[in-house]
Amino acid sequence: MFSYKRELPEGLEDVLRERQRRVTRVEDRLLRLYSLSGYNEVQSPTFEYLDVFASLGGALQVGNMIKFVDPSGKILVWPKGRWPQKEL
Q1: What CATH number does the domain containing 88 carry?
Q2: What values do phi and psi take at 68, rounded to 5?
Q3: Which residues span the domain enclosing 34?
Q4: For range 3-27, the mean pLDDT
Q5: Are 51 and 88 contained in the same domain?
Q6: What pLDDT digit, counting tens, does each position of 62-83 carry?
Q7: In sequence order, what are the residues at sequence separation of 6 or more whose Cβ sits closer than 8 angstroms to the Cβ of residue 60?
Q8: Would residue 3 count as lying in a domain?
Q9: d(C-alpha 57, C-alpha 59), whole Å
Q10: How confident is the model at residue 36, as a pLDDT?
């Protein structure tokens, strides 16, 4: 019989209910504060085409990005700064 070992990629973890509630409360307070100060929330795409970052020269290291290929064959990247961070 096949034994499945659940393993997450390095640096990723599940955020369980109580911790997620605390995170959400902090996020809500920050969003309210920023809004009262005249800022609007902006959601950047999780994935972008590699060309966007490659054209920036050495500003971002393309080697530190997770890469995918879309159905048309173009390379998409997930920049490191947008990865979920592991709590230390």
Answers
A1: 3.30.240
A2: -135, 160
A3: 15-40
A4: 82
A5: yes
A6: 677 888 898 999 998 887 666 5
A7: 53, 79
A8: no
A9: 6
A10: 93
